[in-house]
Amino acid sequence: MSLIDDVRRTLRLHNLTTPASRVAIALSGGPDSTALLVAFRELHDAGDLHLVGVVHLNHALRPEADADQAHCAQLAASVGLPFVAEQADVRVVARREHRSIEDAAHRVRHAFFARAAAELGADAVAIGHTMDDQAETVLLRLLRGAGTRGLAAMRPKRGIVIRPLLGSTRDAVRAFLLERGISALHDASNDDRSIPRNRVRAELLPLLAARFNPRIVQTLALAADLAREDEAYFQPIVDAWIAAHVTRPRAGVTHINREALAALPTAVAWRVLHVLMREAAGGRAVSKIHVALAWELVMERTSGWDGPYHRLERLGPDVVLTTRPAGSTGRPRPAGGPRVPAFSRVLPVPGEVILPEAGWTVSAEVAELVEHLPPGDCSTALVPKDRLGAAVMVRNRRAGDRLRVSDVGHRKLQDLLVDRKVPRELRDRVPIVTDQTGRIVWVAGLAIDQDFQVNDPAQAVVILRLKAVGGSS
Fold this sequence. Notes:
There is one protein chain. The protein starts with a helix and ends in a 5-residue tail after the last strand. 37% of the residues are buried. It is an alpha+beta fold. The longest helix is centred in the middle third of the chain and has 30 residues. The protein is built from 15 helices and 22 strands. The protein folds into three domains: 222 residues, HUPs (Rossmann fold, 3-Layer(aba) Sandwich); 73 residues, no CATH class; 125 residues, Phenylalanyl-trna Synthetase, Chain B, domain 3 (Phenylalanyl-tRNA Synthetase, Chain B, domain 3).
């Protein structure tokens, strides 16, 4: 099947366009968006849709940004289309709004798309994300502890933005351009393996394809489709429950009926929390570990803590979410609550250790083959049995703790906890599994030291699991 056929199928399958649709192309100059422009020009000529223009946002992040904009302007002119461009200093936006560069770029880009679409009279803006981009997104979100909503990854349509290449692989895009003798820009930042997405693209996906599943890209894309269907089913249930049990007495303050929330099936309750926590955080990322900590509060095992850009507390019959004021920095300490004392206990293998002062249980189970086991998530870790040794301990953090979470060397545990937005008052509750030499193996719920990653599917492993005391993993 040709790329044009793939695109037609995706447009039809997800009802992205009709022959009357007016579409603008978001063009970066790279292979994917260039192929999308060429394909849509052909679809326009065939009467499948109306192509009304090309839009380009100059992020001002790279020295080549102005040259890229000029290239895109020339490409738009070569196919006889209007060109709308803007420049935004994304670094300034990120600093001002206390966001990551990636998050700030996303918000600035989509706001620009809305303005450009209005200027061109477009119903939709098409962007060039491929099936490979979808697979990378699924893996990144899985590694960061996302739930089903996050694993649904990129939607074929969200607002005015459509993604017609989600049914097409990156190889199909390159072949399409090669057949037509069309060149495209190369973004050198895509070669920087210190960036997690680039590392997933260059190292993890090829490893999975070579040693586990040659169709891993298609498999992960299908998993995203299934997760999206799950979310489509649950979302009306979540919305109806929120309408019935949530009040907002003033801007930035949300009251949830705690008893009603605790009575919900966990699959619904955690989705309710995730939606409301993201809203309170101003749309910033909220991971599964944050929702798990919020659930501790709902179940009355904690009284309050600070999530990403918001605070959660129990107040009478309610759980209250309060948005942190714009421009504030750091997190306020809770009004009360004792510091968790230092603890260190033996973890039998197999067996479990209960940590009542921290509110967690850590268990260890031996498995002879890893190839048929599910992948670890934020509450589960797989480590090689022969690397772990006989004397396994679980403790909380200590001054000077470090671990290797990437190829660039060891990192302070304190920096990891800050980056993962673990509230200050909860950092001493995080269980840390160490091997017989005292070296950190797993920061429970957050990261495995790279030297304890499982690389051979035939080797025996120890499955480490984290669960709340009295709860399930």
